[in-house]
Amino acid sequence: MIKLKKTPKIAEQLIIAFILLLSTLVMLGWFLNYPKILSIIPGSATMKFNSALLFFLSSFCVIKSKKKKHPLILLFFTLLVLIISFLTLIENLFDINLFIDNLFVEDIYSSKNPGRMSTATALCFFLFSLSLLGLRSDKTKKGSQNIVYFIIIIAFISTVTFILDIPAEYKTDFYKTMAIHTSILFLLISSLLASKTPNLGFTRVLIGKQSGSNLLRKLLPFVILIPFLLSYFLLSLLNKNAIEINFGIVLYTVILISISVTYTSIISIGLNKSDTERKKLENNIILRNQELMQFKEALDRIAIVSISDNKGIIKYVNNKFCEISKWSREEIIGNTYEITSSNHHSKDFIEKISEINDSNNTWIGEIKNKTKDGKLYWTETAVIPLKDKLGNNFEYMAIKQDITERKENEELLASKYVKQLETKNKELEQFAYIASHDLQEPLRTITSFCNILYTEYNEKLDEQAKISFRFIRQATGRMSSLIKALLDYSRLGYEEELILIDCNIVIKDIIEDLNTTIKLTNTKIEFKKLPEISGYKTGVRLLLQNLITNAIKFRKKDTDCIIKINALKKENFIEFSVEDNGIGIAKEYQKKIFAIFQRLHLKNEYEGTGIGLAHCQKIVNLHGGEIWVESSLNNGSKFYFTILNEKEKK
Ligand code: ADP
Predict the structure, then answer these.
(1) Whose alpha carbon is nearest atom 12 of ligand 1?
(2) 164 and 32 belong to one structural domain
(3) How many domains, in total, are found in the chain?
(4) Of the N and C termini of the chain, which has fewer Cβ atoms inside 10 Å?
(5) Are the CB atoms for 598 and 650 separated by under 8 Å?
(6) pLDDT at 170
(7) Which pLDDT band, with edges at 50, 70 and 90, does 6 fall under?
């Protein structure tokens, strides 16, 4: 790309340098009386001092011709070219002397009108200066370019007469005293000026990308070169008297026709080929378009489609979008998706969708929308980024399916299940409550009769009976604590109201209560600023206390116990974690431990009833969350639980 732009610039600079050099040499030639540089072909016309001077001035004007702000000096140069050439034209036209031809040097080489430019040269400079002035305004640019091409034709004819070696006496007065280097410099400087208006007139056709311009570029060298070469060939034969003029003309005609026919045929074959190629491509495009239209029709039939720009402004919606949202196309286009927002989703949720702005990903999810008349509808939505030529996301296509019916059914089913589950749970808890409550009575009777028996008959009992009594008392003790735990479990969550709880205070209270154990076991409890949650006070306290006491209880014997408590805010809930560096739990037991009375160790290894984590599970469920553990044997455990973030939930 850069090379293509640079090349013409370099060519332009070379041409300007050449013009400046040649014109300077000619001027020096005049001062130093060096005729070889004044007329390159011996005996032919000389380039006059004035011509060289005007070329010198003109080349400066060409360099700056495109810049809007012309320094005054350039305008002065242009006007100087205009005045000198105009006065010379007047001199030639009316055959008078205005004393401008030998202003700077004396012409001793010309017999007629010494120092005066030929009419052709003066006319070319006059037109050239007009053309330079014309370039200064957009209105006159095109006319200015036409003038330049006129100069090119004049200079070209003059150059041809030199190459074909036409003697001066055969030339018209107009051309007679125009030097070969003058013609060439006119060709160069005019072509340069024509290239300054590439988007206009003939230059545009000449350098354009269309097929007409292509054809012109192929034909032009031929149209100019072939007749020119043939004329040169014919004239040299005639000059040598090698052939007769009649035969020469016939030969010229036959050769010109043959070459023209061959060349144009070759070009036509090429054109036909590219035409066939183009037709093929056109057909392909038509087919692809048809295919795409079919895809679009199919998509429109089943999906709600919309396209928005980088700022979320909707630019396109299909009929289905309007049909379902009840908004008209005119009302939607130019708006954001706020127009169909139901305000159901949290900020986090919406931010997640906009995260695809800078990515390649497609977002897929369920969105609750609102129609113009306020009805809610659910859509399964895919948001796909569309790329521009540079590979940047510039538009987003949203393809949606109306899933309102399915969602409503799901919600209905879910609420049915929830109700059923709630009833069953209540029944179960009722049962556990009654059972544990009623079991306490016979257990108390057994315990007190055991005590009576043991005190009254202690001395009559042998050693074996005493041991049996001790076992019975231990078993009833354990049974009593199991029943108490069961009773606590069934009571959980019934007495309290949801309140705002500062978890930092809860943890501090627990640490205070467990102070002795913590010191004895050398335990460290680390926690950073924990959030406030809306929950059941006793429940939350019990939950955290159970997890902390378990972490201490199941510590490694040879390592200080470290407990880390953290909380992370997620979309609609807060995720807590209680991590320890204790004995860990094997993978296969990680689900089982949350069931009631499930323990992994013998009573004499670790104290406990196996109900602590069941408590935790129930408390977490009461807060609309979940509990789970990540652990491996000997590598500590990390208990996670979530609590619905009622405070920020929308
Ligand atoms: P308990 O602590 O009374 O045995 P839990 O319900 O609190 O009952 O715990 C159930 C079982 O889960 C425990 O017996 C123990 O095997 C395992 N467990 C609980 N917490 C941890 C922990 N932090 N590290 C290792 N094992 C644990």
Answers:
(1) 593
(2) yes
(3) 5
(4) N
(5) no
(6) 64
(7) very low
Q: From the CA of 276, how far away is ligand 1's center (Å)?
A: 81
Structure confidence at residue 7 (pLDDT): 47
Whether residue 50 is found in the same domain as residue 180: yes
Q: For 444-472, what is the mean pLDDT?
A: 83
Q: What is the pLDDT of residue 494?
A: 64
| Mean pLDDT across 348-372 | 85
Query: Would you state the pLDDT for residue 5?
Result: 44
Which distant-in-sequence residues (6+ apart) come within 8 Å of 75 by Cβ?
Answer: none
The rounded Å distance from CA 595 to ligand 1 centre is 11
The CA-CA-CA angle for residues 542, 543, 546, to 5°, reads 80
Q: Is residue 294 part of a domain?
A: no
Q: Specify the ligand 1 atom closest to the Cα of 582.
A: 24
CATH number of the domain enclosing 359: 3.30.450.20
Q: Does the C-beta of 332 come closer than 6 Å to ligand 1?
A: no
d(CA 172, CA 157): 12
> Does the beta carbon of 610 sit less than 6 angstroms from any atom of ligand 1?
yes
| CB 627 near ligand 1, within 6 Å | no
8 Å CB contact between 570 and 648 = no
Token pair of 532 as six digits: 């406030």
Same domain, 224 and 255: yes
The boundaries of the domain holding residue 475 are: 409-491
Which residue's CA lies nearest to atom 25 of ligand 1?
584
Closest by alpha carbon to 129, among 180, 69, 76? 76
* Cβ pair 131, 147 in contact under 8 A: yes
Confirm if 395 and 307 have CB atoms less than 8 A apart: yes
Q: Residue 1: inside a domain, yes or no? A: no
- Domain shared by 185 and 200, yes or no: yes
Please give the distance, rounded to the nearest whole angstrom, from the Cα atom of residue 635 to the centre of ligand 1: 15
Q: What is the pLDDT of residue 353?
A: 83
The predicted-structure confidence for 509-557, as pLDDT tens digits, reads as follows 999 989 989 999 999 999 989 999 988 888 899 999 999 999 999 999 8
Whether 583 lines ligand 1, by a CB cut-off of 6 Å, is: yes
Which of 459, 475, 491 corresponds to the end of one domain? 491
Minimal-distance CA residue to ligand 1 atom 7: 612
With respect to residue 291, please indicate whether it lies within any of the assigned structural domains. no
| Structural domain contains residue 512 | yes
Residue 70: predicted pLDDT: 57
Q: For residues 466 and 100, what is the distance between their CA atoms, to the nearest angstrom?
A: 150
Considering only residues 522 and 604, tell me which one the structure prediction assigns the higher pLDDT: 522
Same domain, 523 and 613: yes
Q: Closest Cα to residue 185, out of 201, 165, 162?
A: 162
**Residue 44: per-residue pLDDT:** 78
Report the percentage of the chain scoring pLDDT > 70: 94
245-287, pLDDT tens digit by residue? 899 999 999 999 999 999 999 999 998 998 899 999 999 999 9
216 and 204 share one domain: no
Are residues 85 and 54 in contact, defined by beta-carbon separation less than 8 angstroms? yes
- Domain termination site, one of 402, 425, 448: 402
Indicate whether 247 and 193 sit together in one domain. no
Q: Which two tokens stand for residue 552?
A: 């201490």
The verdict on 54 and 203 lying in the same domain is yes
